[in-house]
Specification:
The protein has 484 residues and is mostly helical. It folds into three domains: 166 residues; 123 residues, no CATH class; 150 residues, Alpha-Beta Horseshoe (Leucine-rich repeat, LRR (right-handed beta-alpha superhelix)). Helices cover 55% and strands 5% of the residues. The protein is built from 20 helices and seven strands. Strands 1-2-3-4-5-6-7 form a seven-stranded mixed β-sheet. β2, α16 and β3 form a beta-alpha-beta unit. The longest helix is centred in the first third of the chain and has 27 residues. It is elongated. The structure holds heme C.
Length: 484
């Protein structure tokens, strides 16, 4: 056997042994070697350009020597391919050392690692064939395979560091946009606690080291299941037991503790985020728990509002929901103390109608006190044949969404009525029949452009006043002694 063949055989043997190594070796857990290996490994991205460039140079020279007979000496191409092989081995070793330094999960790198290894083998075969120069067919065949394998390895490597370039392909981007556009708007607010509140914190503060690419402490945080599974020290979270959860223990360690997470020199969790994570673990919520149907303690409510603040619809929907729950509870309470005064407009909704006729016999001051928190949810007020004193006028002027106001045959002062009308901007129907309503009070109505019907029969309104009112409310139906 010639020297060259022996060399080649031992090379293939060494490659085989390292392949076995690649199969079984796992990244270092220990901090000392991990640091050193990570440093050596950091040369991998630098070195990797050498074998790629050199290999394509070899290919180019081969093609050139076919196009122009003997333009390039065979020995030059051979020498260049040997140099390529050497740099490829160095690059592979650096890459492997980088992997041993930890931070990259096996799943992430396996395609890159195995295809790079295949590239080494294939390149070695090429060098051997070319060196023995028996048959040109073998040379071209191995060169072709080497090129293909190199492309696969290079692409897989690129995906690890830069993500899949095809993600930016125009057809994918357009398809994504179309999908976003077709989602109905009102799906946005109903987020999930884990997906929309917990994951963003982890993504921001933890996943750089506990994501799918770098997996420190063998801990991935990419899914709920992954958190339960945990890392080298077991489960990362124990739902229901915050103090016993590794994650909560680690984030609460003092900054100078080297087990502190995130490590001191990295971007830290805010106090609110840490408190939220702790609450979330202790609440033992299922993965699919909706934000809307979660009872949040006060400080978490503030946090959640601040997060969903980017999404005004979500905040509104949430606020309306908690508000109406709260209001319905107050309504129920009011109802047990003062039955008959308030009626719910629609079952299940916090919108009420007030009927003054039922006030009889109650102490009005205490009714007002109980009604105060519900006043801005009144949509209809029936104040028929009663006196509306200033105290009541003050309270009812906070009823900003009233649509129907019936003051027929009741008494009130001009200024109290003006106060009421100036605040009730949603008024659609107003009944003032049989009252002292007079021309002086017309100005008070001017601002209520939403009025559709106003009844002013049997009042002090003059014909002049009526015309004036007509001009203020051109499209409303004004029922008065003059309009007949
Ligand atoms: C800069 C990198 C980095 C960041 C960011 C980081 N960690 Fe770590 N984490 C590590 C390293 C390295 C280890 C392994 C060494 C150790 O256990 O301290 C680790 C280990 C852990 C462990 C123990 C895993 C086990 O089972 O051994 C937990 C739990 C943990 N991290 C939680 C977190 C949380 C929660 C965050 C975000 C708030 C976070 N880490 C952010 C680097 C990081």
């Amino acid at each position: 056997m010639s020297m060259r063949v022996k060399f080649s055989c031992s090379l293939v043997f060494i490659l085989f042994i390292s392949f076995v190594g690649v199969q079984w070796v796992d990244p270092f857990e220990d901090d000392y070697w991990a640091v050193i290996f990570s440093f050596i490994g950091s040369f991998h991205p630098l070195l990797l350009h050498l074998p790629i460039g050199l290999w394509f140079a070899v290919c180019a020279l081969m093609v050139a020597s076919v196009l122009v007979r003997d333009a390039v000496k065979k020995s030059i191409i051979y020498a260049l391919s040997v140099v390529t092989l050497v740099t490829a081995i160095l690059t592979f070793s650096a890459g492997f050392i980088l992997y041993l330094g930890g931070g990259y999960g096996r799943a992430t790198i396996s395609l890159h690692m195995y295809s790079s290894f295949a590239f080494l083998i294939s390149l070695a075969c090429f060098v051997i064939c070319y060196g023995r120069s028996r048959r040109a067919t073998f040379e071209w065949l191995t060169a072709g395979i080497t090129t293909i394998v190199l492309c696969v390895a290079g692409h897989a490597g690129g995906v690890i560091t830069h993500g899949d370039p095809l993600d930016k392909a125009p057809w994918r981007i357009f398809a994504e946009r179309a999908e976003q556009d077709s989602q109905p708007e009102d799906m946005v607010p109903s987020g999930r606690v884990f997906h929309d509140l917990v994951v963003p914190i982890l993504e921001d503060k933890c996943m750089a080291c506990h994501g799918s690419e770098r997996v420190k402490g063998k801990l991935k945080m990419t899914s709920y299941a992954a958190l339960i599974k945990g890392g080298s020290k077991g489960a990362c979270i124990l739902p229901g037991d915050a103090a016993g959860s590794l994650m909560i223990q680690r984030i609460n360690l003092p900054l100078d503790d080297n087990k502190r997470m995130p490590p001191a020199e990295k971007k830290q969790l805010s106090l609110e985020e840490a408190a939220f994570l702790e609450w979330w673990v202790s609440a033992a919520l299922p993965e699919e728990q909706m934000i809307d149907s979660t009872i949040l303690p006060l400080e978490q409510q503030a946090y959640v509002q601040s997060i969903l603040g980017n999404n005004p619809m979500a905040v509104q929907a949430r606020a309306a929901k908690t508000r109406s729950k709260d209001l319905l509870a107050r309504y129920a309470d009011f109802q047990t103390h003062y039955p008959g005064i308030l009626v719910q407009s629609v079952v299940g909704e916090a919108l009420f109608e007030l009927s003054a006729a039922s006030l009889l016999g109650y102490d009005e001051a205490s009714v007002r006190a109980a009604l105060r928190p519900l006043a801005d949810s009144l949509i209809r007020i029936d104040w028929n044949r009663r006196q509306l004193d200033t105290e009541w006028a003050k309270l009812l002027s906070t009823a900003g969404i009233v649509e129907v106001l019936n003051l027929s045959n009741s008494s009130f002062t001009a200024s109290d009525l003006t106060l009421l009308l100036s605040r009730m901007r949603e008024l659609k129907k107003v009944n003032l029949t049989g009252t002292d309503f007079s021309d002086e009070q017309i100005e008070g109505i001017r601002a209520n452009s939403s009025i559709e019907t106003i009844v002013l029969t049997d009042t002090q309104l003059s014909e002049l006043g009526y015309r004036k009112l007509r001009s203020y409310l051109p499209s409303a139906e004004i029922i008065s002694n003059y309009s007949m």
